[in-house]
Design brief:
Length: 423
Amino acid sequence: MSVQELRARILKFDSEIERQMELLKTLEQDKSIVQSQLNAVLDPVARLPLEISSEIFLQFFVLCETRPVPTVLLNICRAWAVIAKSTAALWTAVHIDFPCGDDLAQVLPIWFQRAQNYPLSITISLRGRFSSWNHHVSSVIWKHGEKFKHLEILHDDDFADTELDETVDLFGESDEDTNWLSLPLLETLTIRCQHRQRMYFASQIFELIRQAPNIVELSFGKIALDFDGDSDADSDEKLLAPTLRRLVFEDDYTDDSFLNFVSLPALNALCLPVYYVTGENLLAFLERSGAPLRDLALGGYHPHSSVPLHECLRGIPTLTRFRMSEANPRAVTDLFVALADSPSMLPNLCNLTIRTMGDSASDIPDSSWRALVRALSTRRMQSRIVGVAVSPPEDVLASFRELAVDGADIYVGTEECNFVVAQ
């Protein structure tokens, strides 16, 4: 055969190969469609009404300990992918890990869209240095804030090279104009550092609260607020959060200066476990807010405060539960005497828990124990005084035991031993 004939034949083979490849591609597509149809016939989930199959998927995610993301359902079969995409409630919990790539900025809007009109629970986890924060991605997050119901920011900085003086910047360049930020559905906000105390810009925390008109719970853990150059810190006008009912500082490393700049008139519960609560600041906050506080937990109380603890508590007649975790003898003594001498003080108190500092319970005078007996005799409340290594006077114990026989719930002693019931 000539060269031209051979070349022509090769071209013919190429054309036939291309035609066969197209035919093979079509056959593979047809097979995939038929296989999906067969899977749908055999799959009991796919045969169920969408409402039932969606509920099965939802219950699986509730019961599964590993809490997988719903995207795993997209890779099983076409029928399951259709069900997953149609089940908006599957896409309401979003966990975002930093560091991350810019491509996540394109993925997140798709995820948010699948949640349809359901409110979202957002968890942002930041590992290592703040430079891991991706402002391109975070800008997408904040622009969808109108759908957030729960927002949690976690900082896992258990790394030796982490700079402790680095302030976390949540907004970046967009901080200059926050008109785009809106959190109308937000009810709970949690900002927590796992290992070390980190600094956050106070103005940014205030802005999150300001843009959340329906917020009811705020929790801080191991964070401090940077007020440098913050107009809120220099202004006499306090940030008003009229719907906030619960404020929790989760540990004694948290900076409580936040209280100096806010007014919380609806507050029901306050947990402030710092070592030395300053009476002047606490009283000013309570008077400014005028809140119907029912649950108050403090760490210690500054022994040199010009405002005694009982004066702060006197202004909270709605209080039903009071706890101190690092109580000094002076605060305990003054409180016992005030409760005994002023029956009208804290008329609704039904739960009193005091944990003393180290061996300081031995510094509580006998007269104070007798004052507590008088207070408990006129009040029906649970009383737990823990950390008492040395038993109170015998006459005090006898009175406590009589009250216990009459139904009072009283615990005085160490974690292991209640002197009231010990014989």
